[in-house]
Write a structure and sequence with these properties.
Layout (H helix, E strand, L loop, with lengths): L2 H23 L28 E9 L2 E2 L19 E4 L2 E7 L6 H7 L3 E2 L3 E3 L5 E3 L4 E7 L2 E3 L12 E8 L3 H10 L4 H5 L20
Parallel strand pairs: 1-10
Antiparallel strand pairs: 1-2, 1-4, 3-4, 5-6, 6-7, 8-9, 8-10
Length: 208
């Protein structure tokens, strides 16, 4: 190889490294987020006024069974954005994705056609599950029961159980708490050793 060709090759390589470096610094993760997007997937964050992208694992248990929310009608995508700032997508019903401040569990369930209050949850067929003398609506976040669940704003890697059933059925509640997945970290990019989440397919909000 001639000296001129070697020089041109080295110069091109240096320019490529230079361009790549500055492209990385332009990624929209903010100064406190030095992790790259994994597989075109933004790392989870919620630490400034403009950028929010958090993920939480959850289970919804009503009428003695876990509710399946993987059907297309519950999923957000480009042609069907159920809520601009909170959603499920890609037929995965285990992880809530939130893209704005102040969006609550009440907002999330409303987007699915449900209604959540302090004492009741109503599904999209208008079946109502309320607290009474024998059964109770209970919401747990990271194994702790919370009050006013409709006002709760899910946080990064929360593990959430929404349960309606016999108040004293502690074995079932304990089993359900243990069954909640812990895959939110994969979507958030905080456990890269467990793999890379697929790119999110939910319309423009997934790019925020």
């Amino acid at each position: 190889m001639k000296i001129q060709e070697i020089t041109a090759f080295v110069a091109g390589l240096l320019i490529g490294v230079f361009v790549f470096y500055f492209a990385l610094n332009d990624l929209p993760f903010g100064e406190d987020h030095d992790m790259m997007s994994l597989g075109n997937h933004p790392v989870g964050y919620a630490d400034n006024e403009d950028k929010v992208h958090v993920h939480s694992d959850f289970v919804l248990f009503l009428d003695g069974a876990e509710v399946d929310l993987s059907a297309d009608k519950y999923q957000s995508k480009t042609a069907q954005i159920l809520h601009a700032h909170v959603h499920l997508h890609d037929n995965n019903d285990e992880v809530i994705h939130r893209h704005d401040h102040g969006v609550t569990l009440g907002d999330f369930f409303e987007s699915l056609g449900f209604a959540l209050t302090e004492d009741c949850i109503t599904d999209d067929t208008e079946r109502e599950f309320c607290s009474d003398d024998t059964e109770e609506l209970m919401v747990f976040v990271n194994d702790e029961r919370i009050e006013s669940p409709f006002d709760y704003v899910n946080e990064e890697e929360d593990r959430i159980l929404i349960y309606h059933g016999p108040t004293q059925d502690t074995d079932t509640i304990r089993s359900l708490l243990m069954s909640i997945t812990d895959t939110a970290c994969i979507y958030s990019g905080t456990c890269p050793e467990r793999g890379v989440a697929p790119p999110e397919s939910c319309g423009l909000t997934c790019e925020l």
